[in-house]
């Protein structure tokens, strides 16, 4: 599979939904496969909260992309047929303009001064990317979780620029409980002594403890209760493989390990920005989903997973009902999914078949 | 209602389930109503994780007891008819021997050296209290959540000393997800810069930030998703009443407020001990619930609440099935409950009627 990673700079001013602006910005973009001569085979992947531009294959550090089970040669999203594009969202921490990057105005990292970004902003920058790549429209825009919100927003904001939208394990807005869980995660980051109100770069540190706790909580929400029970039950962790002597159970060890690993690579300001963007998104805003759905021209595929308690299937159904009310061509499928909310990341016979059929229909 | 609060000292050695021991210990005990001449009207209330001995009425600081909706004159647990006893569990932080109290051996607070306590230990100390009070048996032992686990353990450990057990919003053991959530809470406490590996008393501080985050997470698990949605939805917090400018939504403000308040009064070492006790409890241990249920002589009332996702009704059903397998006189009821896991704390017509009937049957 041909993987290409590049940084694309946009020197025009970007006015954000918040009213703030960026004088210029850059996106780190990864592409798979080849754009055909008629430029009709482009697919945009939108990443979830902690994802990035590296969606498939292995990168230079031998890291496998977040959607590698779905995206690749002969896979559900077939890179032999489609030109697949994925970019790190602005505000992220993987190479696109975000808190870690240098603010040209100050020659220092943006840090906590990076403006609040939103799902609407991300879709706007992705549209600018589409134009820059001279792609007339996306054959498909898709993603899971926060990525699914972007796919939905694409169908609303740029109805002429998207043929299909795949909205997986997502919702038209976050629930009260979603917001509450994100606030606990943010609180643990803010109260880390190394956070320095977001100015930790200047101190040469990172609020790793806070990030770790936040991610441990995240992992509980990504897995279902049943899956956790199956995988770990009440088994005790072997003495030799304990990450910490304070740990008793395997599940504690797993969360400790996963949290620690995440805290070494993710940026705390990005964590806060990204979760705030997720919390504040409301498809259709004051107009309401039903009203903006009128304008949607794309065909929608909405997939929920029974084991997902973060964005349970009922949240997908709300989108489907709004689509049906407005005669939008839309399908809504609920799959078992063995991985809770994370099910959207994993291949299964049914899931891949449904995606494939949808792309080719 | 006659409320009496006293501290009772036990000068005999207490050997704990862990193998560690306390040379002596004290319990802070609150009682309501009067013991009758035949001593047949005593009821023991077992508190949940963050509760204490103050179960009903108002104390000297005008604080209402945690089960005041259920316990009092003419209430479901009628203090005009019954002599109701509640004590703070050892390891707690409300006046019974725990990390905050002075270790007679060192003349300093036990702090992090307080031994790990368990549900079995609590029930053992409550049996010692029963003997000291010269009560021949409890007419009823009851509580919700971790309190329900103690009621269940009473029926197993001291079958001759208890006529009835009321086990509400509880389980025979914690689930993997329960353990995982508690571990996130503990992690946030341990990583607070003021925790000092549990030796914070010596530094004259308390790991309040960690406790706050832990409690914020706790509150999400005590409320149901639906309840949260009904109470807060996606409403924004008024500017004037924001506890912090970082807050956008009402639900964030609520959690911030509740977490902050809790962090001012609860002890971090107790938090860790109590949650570890909850995580490690398994009714019947290696023998299994079904095997130890054989010995139960008490009549059981098991109540679950549909809106409880922390200890959902199915967990109560497991106890009921083991009871039925062993011809134990047991009833299992699932109620709506408008308050998620916390539903056991709140009066409702049905709930109170069921408890009353059970006590008087």
Q: Rg of chain A to the nearest angstrom?
A: 20 Å
Mean pLDDT of chain A: 96
Overall tally of structural domains of chain A: 2
CATH homologous superfamily annotation of the largest domain in chain A: Alpha/Beta hydrolase fold, catalytic domain
Which chains share the greatest interface?
A-B, 45 and 45 residues
**Count of separate DSSP helical elements of chain A:** 10
H and E order of chain A = EEEEEEEEEEHEHEHHHHHHEHEH
**CATH secondary-structure class of the largest domain in chain A:** Alpha Beta
What is the subunit arrangement here? homodimer
Which stretches of chain A are low in confidence, meaning pLDDT under 50 for 5 or more residues running? none
CATH architecture of the largest domain in chain A: 3-Layer(aba) Sandwich
Gross morphology of chain A is globular
Percent helix range of chain A: 25-40%
**Number of beta-strand segments of chain A:** 14
Query: How large a portion of the residues of chain A is in β-strands, by DSSP E?
Result: 15-25%
What is the fold-level CATH name, i.e. the topology of the largest domain in chain A? Answer: Rossmann fold
Strand order of the largest sheet of chain A: 1-4-8-5-11-12-13-14
- Class by SSE composition of chain A: alpha/beta
Task: Summarize this structure as a short list of keywords or feature phrases.
transferase (chains A, B), 361 residues, Rossmann fold, cytoplasm (chains A, B), Rna Polymerase Sigma Factor, Chain: A, homodimer, AB_hydrolase_1 (chains A, B), globular, alpha/beta, 14 strands
């Amino acid at each position: 599979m041909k993987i290409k990673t590049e940084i694309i700079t946009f020197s025009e001013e970007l006015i954000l939904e918040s009213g703030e602006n960026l004088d210029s910005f850059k996106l780190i973009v990864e592409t798979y496969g080849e754009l055909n001569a008629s430029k009709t085979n482009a697919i945009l992947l939108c990443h979830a909260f902690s994802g990035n531009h590296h969606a498939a294959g292995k990168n230079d550090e031998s890291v496998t992309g977040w959607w590698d089970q779905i995206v690749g040669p002969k896979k559900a999203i077939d890179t032999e047929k489609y030109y697949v594009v994925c970019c790190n969202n602005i505000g992220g921490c993987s190479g696109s303009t975000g808190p870690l990057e240098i603010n040209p105005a100050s020659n220092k990292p943006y840090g906590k001064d990076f403006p609040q970004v939103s799902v609407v902003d991300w879709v706007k920058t992705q549209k600018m990317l589409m134009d820059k790549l001279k792609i007339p429209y996306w054959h498909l825009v898709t993603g899971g979780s926060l990525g699914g919100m972007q796919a939905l927003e694409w169908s609303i904001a740029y109805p002429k620029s998207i043929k299909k939208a795949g909205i997986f394990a997502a919702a038209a807005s976050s629930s009260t409980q979603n917001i509450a869980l994100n606030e606990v995660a943010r609180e643990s980051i803010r109260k880390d002594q190394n956070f320095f109100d977001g100015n930790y770069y200047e101190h040469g540190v990172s609020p790793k403890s806070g990030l770790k706790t936040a991610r441990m909580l995240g992992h509980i929400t990504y897995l279902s209760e049943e899956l956790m029970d199956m995988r770990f039950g009440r088994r005790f962790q072997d003495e030799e493989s304990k990450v910490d002597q304070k740990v008793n159970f395997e599940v504690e060890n797993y969360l400790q390990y996963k949290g620690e690993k995440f805290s070494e690579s993710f940026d705390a300001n990005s964590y806060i920005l990204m979760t705030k963007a997720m919390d504040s998104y409301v498809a259709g805003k004051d107009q309401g989903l039903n009203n903006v759905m009128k304008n949607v021209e794309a065909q929608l595929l909405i997939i929920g997973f029974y084991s997902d308690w973060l964005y349970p299937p009922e949240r997908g159904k709300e989108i489907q009902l709004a689509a049906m009310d407005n005669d939008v061509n839309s399908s809504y499928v609920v799959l078992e999914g063995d991985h809770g909310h994370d099910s959207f990341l994993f291949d299964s016979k049914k899931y891949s078949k449904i995606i494939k059929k949808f792309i080719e229909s």
